[in-house]
Amino acid sequence: MREGSIRRRLTAIPVRLIANSATVAVVQATSVGRMRTLVIDHPLVAHKLGRLRRSETSSTTFRLLAEELVTLLAYEATDNLDVVPVTIQTPVATCHGVELAEPRPVVVPILRAGLGMLNGMVKLMPTAEVGFLGMVRDEESLIAHTYADRLPHNLSDRPVFVLDPMLATGGTLAAAIGLMIDRGAKQITAICLLAAPEGIAHLEAELAGRDAEVTLVTAAVDDHLNDKGYIVPGLGDAGDRLYGVVS
């Protein structure tokens, strides 16, 4: 437990309790190697995810709900950020506080659907730097290729937060995280609205033995992928639901 923290304790089983005087929320935690998966179990997260799943939810409402849900997930995802002590002058007296340590975190939405998660993340962490990564998967080889790269060439000592709404097959997210590890990133957190077991398994296999600590934070792990690669029950194509279908 971090010094001065009373917010959580670890149990002997892979479940974390987050508690204060008003609420207790359960976060299911699993890990393989140096990757761990956190499934956030909280009434507000479940409520907003349920609204996102509804087929009648409009794109406007979907974007708003996605932003709100990301902010809730980001609260948990940023738990391990380093801070430094500072002295603060209040209107009444001086006191001790903390600020986020340098270098600043990097937030990386994967285009295009990841853009719909960006506002929810930077609202919580406005001092973070933002990079962009565009990746497309070849439907025959299933290999993800990079078509847009606006990331620092050196990510050493930078906490990196990757935004991708759906962890389905896991190929795109694994390729994105692999690229960031190649550039020196050691602490990477992927925030996904939904995940499939097949995607998590693929991510764990692809990242096994890589020299980085990877955390997946998600609102739910659904049942399976269908023959078209969609998460079931899922919420459909996140990009289309965020921005509509351009004909």
Structural overview:
- The chain is of the alpha/beta class and 247 residues long.
- It has a single domain, classed as 3-Layer(aba) Sandwich (Rossmann fold).
- The protein has helices spanning 43-53, 59-77, 115-124, 171-182, 197-207, 238-243; strands at 8-10, 15-19, 24-32, 35-41, 83-89, 94-100, 106-111, 129-130, 132-137, 144-150, 160-163, 166-167, 187-192, 194-195, 213-218, 224-225, 231-232.
- Strands 1, 2, 3, 4, 7, 8, 9, 10, 11, 13 and 15 form an eleven-stranded mixed β-sheet that branches.
- A hairpin with a 2-residue loop joins strand 3 (24-32) and strand 4 (35-41).
- It is globular.
- The model is unreliable at 1-27 (pLDDT under 50).
Describe what is shown at a glance.
The protein is an alpha/beta fold. It is built from 6 helices and 17 strands. The strands form 4 sheets. Strands 1, 2, 3, 4, 7, 8, 9, 10, 11, 13 and 15 form an 11-stranded mixed sheet that branches. A two-stranded antiparallel ribbon has the order 5-6. A two-stranded parallel ribbon has the order 12-14.
Fold blueprint:
Layout: E1 8-10, E2 15-19, E3 24-32, E4 35-41, H1 43-53, H2 59-77, E5 83-89, E6 94-100, E7 106-111, H3 115-124, E8 129-130, E9 132-137, E10 144-150, E11 160-163, E12 166-167, H4 171-182, E13 187-192, E14 194-195, H5 197-207, E15 213-218, E16 224-225, E17 231-232, H6 238-243
Parallel strand pairs: 4-15, 7-8, 7-9, 7-11, 11-13, 12-14, 13-15
Antiparallel strand pairs: 1-2, 2-3, 3-4, 5-6, 9-10, 16-17
Helix pairs in contact: 1-2, 2-3, 4-5
